[in-house]
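Long-time lurker. I teach an intro course on protein structure, and each term I like to show students one example going from raw sequence to a predicted 3D structure in token notation. This year I'd like something fresh instead of my usual example. Would anyone be willing to generate the tokens for the chain below so I can use it in lecture? Attribution to the forum is fine with me.
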Amino acid sequence: MAACSLTLLGGFGLRSADGRELALSTRKDRLLLAYLALNAGRSLARDRLAGLLWGDRGETQARDSLRQSIAAIRHTCRQVTLDPIASERDSVNFSCDGIEIDAVAFERLAAEPATWPDAATLYRGALLEGIDGITPEYEAWLAPERERLAALAVRLVENIATTAQPSETALCLSRQLLARDPVCEPLHRTLMRLHVAAGDRATALKLYAVCRDTLKRELDTVPDLQTEMLYRNILTDRPAQQAPMVDSARATERPSIAVLPFSNLSRDPDLDHLCEGLAEDIITGLGRFRLLFVIDRYSSSMIVKQETDIAEIGRRLGVAHLVQGSLQRQGDRVRITVRLLDAATRAQVWGESYDHPFADLTTIPDTITRALTSTLHGRVESALLAQVRRKPKMAAYECLLRGLKHLRGYGPGDNQRAVELFQQAVDLDPDYARARAYRAFADVVLYGYSDAPDEILDRSHAMATTALELDETDGRCQFLVGLIQRYRGDMDSAERHYQRALELNPNDADVIVGYGRLLAFRGQLEQGLDRVMQGMRLNPYHPEWYWLNLASVLYEAGRYADAAAALSRITKPGYWVLCRLAGCYAELGRMEEARETAANALRLRPNFRVGTLRLRECPPAIADRIRGGLRKAGLPG
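-- Reply from a regular --
Happy to contribute to a lecture. Here you go:
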């Protein structure tokens, strides 16, 4: 048994084995003992020790002060029959035999999984917390030691959280550490996991909101991929599924890649949409290859607005490779430069420049796709590269890109503008299959999805079918036809088109999420939820309609609180999102929130009536349950 214990974490304390306080009369005596204890077993130069605490004095006076302080420490330790200091003329050596030092024990216990809980009880605060009047020389040693031990404490609670075992000690320590560093995302994730382990999912989900709001307020940034995926996994009862981190082995087995929006070097605002369009076409081309893991364009665009460092972008998107490019117009020609980068090292793997007539710009994405797939994986389904796909006219392509920015928009007139731009694309190039498909779908959006009149849905289906006649190998056309069929209530046809779309492009996150919703409404709840989560992984910074799809699956599963949490992620909810949210609150018995949310919905759509909802895409039992929840919330009949 140790003769005395030395407390350094969270303050300073020296006590005998029977609990008596062993006093040291001056602050510098205490600081010297702490330094000696944490450097036990080393030969420490007297000049170094004197300079740490008495550097503002002359050399002789400093050494005298050091000698007096050593004598005071010896005197105190002799009260418990210890003499830990061995002095030489020019050096001092400290032995910790018989002394239990909490900081030393903390490091030892934190190294072994079996003693992690014991280590967590020892970290009561920062090293020598609350001791003031420290000299700059001592602070230069103390500050990094404090940070090192604090970082070890963070790793400790992270490790405990991965065991998925409830731990009140780890919870308390995590809160303490987070109070010290509120923007430390690993601590937010740790607390979320610990609350899940304790069976408190609601608090875990609230902690995500705290993390998100804190990062926005303090750093003007958003949670990273691991935090986002953890939140989604908790929301969908999949806390064990961590956001996959990229490593060299995984990248070798299935190369992972994100294509960033191209830079507009001409500073011509009219070319901005082309920069994003080029990236999207390259993503579509890469997405055809099953051996590639391709992040959706939407997430790539969102991250580039917040981050410029290649390694950080790669980390947040969870990919091993990034594609960067630029576009510069020179008269009737355009120069496109493309680079393939290793995200972890920032090193360029491949690069190329293309000088091309501006009018033929739409042929460039395939050229780049061939080079990228060849570089990343020499034989990745190479037969697909030989496919000849018809290219649209440049003006029609521009109209399509502009229309996509408005489709499903929340601004006044957004969806009407999308209809107009898609129609322009069709007028400019009647054989442009994708423009026809989007023109058809835009009417469905404009007129209320499954509540659109029969004649609108029938007309949209007819137009979308002609798009497939023009190019049945376009996965996005297949998806849009499937969507229209879903809103018409023809689920068998919708599923066939979704499956064909995924055969053509297995990495299309929009299709995967939509397919998940369809599967859930067909009774395959777990498979549907898995699909939605897969799509969110491919497009982690996705458009907000993903949340509506996830909420629909959760609602069908009877998980109304989780569905409400998903709907609450939509920042500019329209009347239908508010109606669904009100229905969730009503099913949960939260009637005050239900009535308030229903009133907000009616302010946006005063003529809304539950009885007029067609809900063609929902099986009758689900449709009745949705209508019942809306009526419970007080929405008119």
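Some talking points for your students: The domain at 392-504 is CATH 1.25.40.10 (Serine Threonine Protein Phosphatase 5, Tetratricopeptide repeat). Confidence is low (pLDDT under 50) at residues 240-253, 377-389.
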